[in-house]
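Could you show me just one protein sequence together with its fold in token form as a worked example?
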Amino acid sequence: MDHAAVLAAYDQQIRRDARSEGSGTRLERIGGVVRQTGSEHDWNGVLWADVDARTADDVIAEQVRHFTDAGREFEWKLHSYDRPADLAERLLAAGFVADPLETVMVAESDGLPAGPELPEGIRLLPVTDAAGVELMAEAHLAAFGEGDAALSEQLAKRVLAQLTETPDEIVAVVAMAGERPVCGARLEFRSGTDFAGLWGGGTAPEWRGKGIYRATVAHRARIAAERGYRYLQVDASDDSRPILARLGFATLCTTTPYVYRP
């Protein structure tokens, strides 16, 4: 993989030329900033910004005003190659809080190895409706605990909206242990780009290390390749990063969500 070429494609297609996520969101390109504004259940934030040491503080202040006026918590998605070099410090000084760093990893969808067989007693159930989304939310809580209940609810509403409004742009599955959901994962297609995004995959503690996450990656990779998407992209946590590296994913850059809560 040509790292520089793939990074340039990612920056252009996923950040600068981003499309809005669903009918309830608005994507704007204002003053060198690409941002999305939606409901409280949508992702709200800054995807890309053309700023330097002279303009950064004013641009940051403008985004705070915009989202505060809209009554929205929002995220400035800072990448390791963004400039100026002290942009992170400027965001912190403006009242943002940094979430854990994530690693942007990419692989060619048709070049990944076949996934392992699912453990005995586990099956993948397609998610197509509200009942399936509820199972995904239960799987999220099983993986991350009740402390993540608010995020689980928010994700459930987003996924249900996607399945309802843009069903061709998402594939979701939940791994079931009998009647209990233990892992939820989704694949989001970005029309007009080379990239499909892998999201979710958190697994209930007692089922970790048995190949469920790897199986969901392989399942989604096959679908992405069949639909003509060249690359799979993941914002990987520290837990999933080594698994993805063993499967053949390469690190493209890192990204840190800086969150502002009005």
